[in-house]
Amino acid sequence: MSFSFQVHRDLQFDHNKELLKIAEDNTPELLHTLKTDVYFVKCVKDSSKLGGCGIQPVDTDWTRSYGKGDTLVLDFGEHITGTFSIDMRSVGSPMDAPLYIGIKFCEMPCEIEEDSKNYDGWLSSSWFQEERIHKDVLPCTLQMERRYSFRYVRIDVLDTSPKWKVVFARPSADAISCAKDADIPEIEDKELKKIYTTGLHTLHECMQDVFEDGPKRDRRLWLGDLRLQALSNYASYKKIDIVKRCIALFCGMRCTDGRIPANVFVKPEYIPDDTFLYDYSLFLINTAYDYMQETNDIPFLNTIYSVLKEDMDACLQCVDDTGRFHMQENFPVFVDWSNTFDKEVCGSAITIYALRQLIVLGKQCSQDVEHYECVLHLMEEEVRNHLYDADKHVVRCYTGEVNLATQVWMVLSSTFTEEENHAIMQEAMHRFFPVEGIATPYMYHHITEALFVSGWKEEAIALMKSYWGKMIDLGGDTFFEAFDPNLPDYSPYGSTMINSYCHAWSCTPVYLIYKYVL
Ligand code: RAM
Questions:
Q1: What is the distance in A from the centroid of ligand 1 to the CA of 221?
Q2: Closest by alpha carbon to 488, among 45, 46, 51?
Q3: 0.85 exceeded by the pTM?
Q4: To test ligand 1's pocket by mutation, which of 211, 218, 229 has the most ligand atoms within 8 angstroms of CB?
Q5: Which regions of 67-147 does DSSP assign to beta strands (E)?
Q6: pLDDT tens digit string along 68-77?
Q7: Under DSSP, is residue 79 helix (H, G, I), strand (E, B) or coil?
Q8: DSSP-assigned letters across all residues of 85-107
Q9: Cis peptide, bond prior to residue 509, ω within 30 of zero
Q10: Dist. CA 237–CA 242, nearest whole Å
Q11: Which atom number of ligand 1 is nearest to the Cα of residue 505?
């Protein structure tokens, strides 16, 4: 199991005041946009859409009145992260009983008719974006207090009374993000342009007072997502303060053993989660490296370097004297939600990738990095001598297994030459394409990037079109958290109802197109 609930109440965390002040000082301003373009729709069966569910417009008639058992579905025409309000009044006899309604916010049409009573997944059902509300006196404006992630709003009139009905008017949403509009580059290819703009909107919706992973769920800052959001943000919105804030939050709340928590909370105060993923911990180093490439903020690097170094030292506890990485039960390597492949050598590759960048950062702030250069050399030699089959152009796991993720992460780790990488990905395409058993845009991102860096540009673009393009074909206005094109009903959580359809780590075509196509 690469991921399960971790509970480590005995761990201690540092709360570094200086770093948490940097995080606080870089809190981005949230921008509000009023959205009032709303139409009535209904759900229809459509086998070409996700979950076999599409929408059809119906007459948008604001004079209609609704009684017990009636339902209204509103469509804002685009994905919104924000709050919602609507006016309500009664018609008929005097209001001799309260109004009782159910209201539900949906990102995708397939959520509109799902019944949360049937939920049997392993994440909390409290994430469902639905409420039941009484109003004793009409007319009134129903102002929903919570922030939701939605395009569609379903209102069920649970009861009025036989003597009166309710009429709705003036729905609106206060859309919230810290991202201002970005200039959209000229992209001639229409399919790629749509993929780019959908990725950009996905990123926009997740840019709040931190980079959230998903505005529907988990609404918090995860390190693996942060690294990819930051790259996509440099390629588009170029908001530096939020990246600096997020790096400072992780650096400011490390575990006393040096490891970095996989995610943190910012409300009601800054709190580290007691969840650890080996690769996520290391990605703080890569995120800091990318930030330095973008900003050259040496004073900040000087402030955080010791945290990055101790993060690496903690992770290197999993590497033995021969340069072999050993996966630990309580510090799993994530890589993808799929658990059907051996992830151990992905762990080696990610360590190499982080070591290489830590060495650059160490040199930038005049630190002694000799030890890390030795470990890097040892780890590369271990892979070359024991896992790389130069004749077959594959990197094996210690079990002998050859899987796609290992080839991809080895290419991204720059362990091999350009020619070797080209041959490794050629062989990987031969063996593993069309891709199977990979369940997240997160891993598809790494496959696509490995193709680009190993000289397979056309193939990378084709993969982007077939994977992210398929989410658009299925009706996505934003890109999903989990998506296996062979199993569109896949969920890592035991039920698609809890899946998020606007998820940070899937926004990366913005970065990939900017860096490798334009
Ligand atoms: C899920 C979230 C998050 C991801 C982790 C590992 O809980 O979707 O985005 O980083 O998994």
A1: 9
A2: 51
A3: yes
A4: 218
A5: 71-92, 99-106, 130-135, 140-143
A6: 999 999 999 9
A7: strand
A8: EEEEEEEES---S-EEEEEEEES
A9: no
A10: 11
A11: 9
